[in-house]
């Protein structure tokens, strides 16, 4: 049996998707000095010099393009110099997410393909912009939006 490959996913129309909010979890960030590849829980992901290399609450790693990082993360240290390594937290925002019961693959905004395991989550920041998040990591980084 082949693993389903998700293409052009839009969770806005998926009855199995739900609304979640990012939690203010402090993450360790260092900025890449050169281009490279980081091994994430979901597979290898390329990054470019200047991109943010994140370390999550479970020790997992993933890259974020610099422009996206600057728009979605804030330093947790007052007076921190922009572009320098340190602790950061995601700005609170709402996302759509769906838990998958079977293994799956999805092509993310960069064109790279990631693999999810049974129980992992597909998180949609906006149509065409998704991430695969391991189940135990998802529970730390996101909380359900209730009474909406």
Separation of the first and last Cα atoms: 38 Å
Instruction: Compute the number of structural domains.
Output: 2
Percentage beta strand = over 45%
| Structural class by SSE content | mainly beta
Mean pLDDT: 89
- Unreliable stretches (pLDDT < 50, length at least 5) are none
**Percent of residues in helical segments?**
under 10%
The number of distinct β-strands equals 15
Task: Enumerate how many helices there are, as a single number.
Answer: 2
Largest sheet: 5 strands, antiparallel
From N to C, what is the helix and strand string? EEEEEEEHEEEEEEEHE
Specify Rg, calculated over alpha carbons. 15 Å
Name the overall outline. Answer: globular
The neighbouring-strand order within the major sheet is 14-13-10-2-15
Would you mind describing this structure in some detail?
This protein has 148 residues and is mainly β. The protein folds into 2 domains: 1-23 and 93-148, no CATH class; 24-91, no CATH class. It is 9% helix and 45% strand. It has a 5-stranded antiparallel β-sheet with strand order 14-13-10-2-15. It has a 5-stranded antiparallel β-sheet with strand order 7-6-3-9-8, covered by helices on one side. A hairpin with a 2-residue loop joins strand 4 and strand 5. The N and C termini lie far apart (38 Å). The model has no long low-confidence stretch (mean pLDDT 89). This is PGDYG family protein.
Give me the secondary-structure topology.
Layout: E1 5-6, E2 18-22, E3 26-31, E4 36-40, E5 43-47, E6 52-55, E7 61-64, H1 66-72, E8 73-75, E9 86-90, E10 94-99, E11 104-107, E12 113-116, E13 121-126, E14 129-133, H2 135-141, E15 142-144
